[in-house]
Amino acid sequence: MNRTNPGKMDKLDRVVADARRNRAEREAGYREKALKMYPWVCGRCTREFTRTNLHELTVHHRDHNHDNNPPDGSNWELLCLYCHDNEHSRYLEAGYSTGDQSDARGATHNPFAALKQMLDREESE
């Protein structure tokens, strides 16, 4: 123990206490629960993960509701970054955007508007 500078030890004690508290908070979160509950394998591409690349494994909410975190983990699946991005892009492309679409306008240009007249003209020539 450093008796010449007790303030330094107080600061170190605070840092250690903060680190322990942060760890407990993380373990209470759904990501830590999911990582304890499921094997560290992507649910789509079956890529395996270790502690060194675990940050690339994400928790995907199957119903896309991040507030739906049941204790049994039934709304979660572990996906790698790439498969997770793919899943969310598919969800958005399917038209399930959570944003307000009331002001969204459709396309104003119709490239085939005069197609029938053009085809009829070609047939008559």
Give the structure's gist in a few sentences.
With 125 residues, this protein is mostly helical.
What are the segments in which pLDDT stays under 50 over at least 5 consecutive residues?
none
Q: Trace the largest sheet across and list its strands.
A: 1-2
CATH fold naming of one domain: His-Me finger endonuclease fold
Q: Which structural class do you get from the secondary structure elements? A: mainly alpha
Please tell me the CATH architecture of one domain by its name: 3-Layer(aba) Sandwich
User: What is the residue-averaged pLDDT?
Assistant: 82
Total strand count, please? 2
Shape, per Cα inertia axes: elongated
Number of helices: 4
CATH class of one domain: Alpha Beta
Q: Secondary-structure element sequence? A: HHEEHH
Structure overview:
The protein has helices spanning 6-28, 30-37, 81-93, 115-124, and strands spanning 57-61, 76-80. It has a domain at 30-98: His-Me finger endonuclease fold, CATH 3.40.1800. The protein is built from 4 helices and 2 strands, in the order ααββαα. With 125 residues, the protein is mainly alpha-helical. Helices cover 43% and strands 8% of the residues.
Keywords:
two-stranded antiparallel ribbon, 43% helix, His-Me finger endonuclease fold, 4 helices, mainly alpha, elongated, 8% strand, 125 residues
Write the layout of secondary structure elements.
Layout: H1 6-28, H2 30-37, E1 57-61, E2 76-80, H3 81-93, H4 115-124
